[in-house]
Amino acid sequence: MIVTSSRMIESWIIMGFTISYIITLFITVFISLLLTPLVKKLAFKIGAVDVPNKRRINKTTMPTAGGLAIFLAFAFSTLVLINRQLIEVDYFRYVLPIVVSGGMIVVTGLIDDIREIRPWQKSIGILLASCVIYFFTEVHFDSITIPGIVRWLSLPDYISFPLTIIWIFALTNAVNLIDGLDGLVSGVSIISLTTVGIVGFFFLPLQSVFIPITIFALVAAIIGFFPHNYHPATIYLGDTGALFIGFMISVMSLQGLKNATFVAVLTPMFVLGVPITDTLFAIIRRKLNNQSVTSPDRAHLHHRLLALGFSHRAAVLTIYGISLVFSFIALLLNYTSKIGIILLVIAAIFGIELFIELIGVLGENRQPLLKALKVIGNRDYRQKIHKRKERMKEIKRVLKKNEKGEG
């Protein structure tokens, strides 16, 4: 009887927290929704605006720094509203370094939105925020497990530290790079963070419950901003928002990687499939074109969709769809067997490469997979290639004959 009563009390406590937490999420959405117009006015006053140019989509001067509204709503939600509900389990100590480091990223992005600082200067801000995460939280790589290769390998600090910094740097900048269309980053981040939150809730141990609690507070803050940012946008995220969201995604996903297993590493990579794929192919494309990796171009995923005739909204919705597919694969990774994981990864890589070649992200003349499939499935194309090879052989034969005649 006593056991039954204690279970009932425990279930009532959980139910009470769940209801108050859901109410908190709605309040967070509302705060973000109200703060955004105020941030818009502030952006014009401090000069945080996007002036139209050749690379930008906007035709008129637009306020940026919209990420400030997201950050303020998130900070109030976690430090005040949620902390009051979890004061007995010391949630404040857990979330404070995350909010402080996020604030450092917001300040860095805000300065860039006003003055457009250099990449290395932004990198200093990201590095300092990453150091706060590493030294004041437990968010870092402690060990790694690779099935069939490494069962359990504890990582020393001189490996753990650079791995953590590289992870945060890579994902923060990857999210920032896709911020090119109205509502693109905010929509993709809602999908990605929700997936990370679901994985954290269902697949991480109970002591990691703070992860989904914090993630869904951030999702709520982004949802409140989203109506102002979706096409046609009245305010942009700016580097203030894109860097902050990318940073938070990297930190939140890294918490699930604290003891990195093969599936734990793959999950956030698939969740963030859109920004990671776009960044990876941007680097490859620029290397092939003998350009600097940091040099801007108009061949990103969203640029290519627009060039193919997609409307602004259709391009954004298409990328949302791709992000949902990646997130679905990420969820499947946590359910399937080792063989299933391998098959999913192979199928995903094949699908990504095929899509990238079809829309011409690497360039119209760089389509190895499409050409291989054409060789397999098109007899006329095979014969055409064969004739071309025979013609080249004949030309070489004639050239050699001429060289001998001249000799």
Number of domains: 2
Globular, elongated, flat, extended or rod-shaped: what is the shape? globular
- In terms of DSSP E residues, the strand content is under 5%
Q: What percent of residues adopt helix (DSSP H or I)?
A: over 70%
Please state the structural category: mainly alpha
Largest sheet: 3 strands, mixed
Q: Order of SSEs, N→C?
A: HEEHHHEEHHHHEHHHHHHH
Poorly predicted segments: none
Distance between the termini: 108 Å
Order of neighbouring strands in the sheet with most strands: 4-3-5
Number of DSSP-assigned strands? 5
Quaternary assembly: single chain
In DSSP terms (H or I, runs of 4 or more residues), the helix count works out at 15
Rg calc: 25 Å
Output mean pLDDT.
82
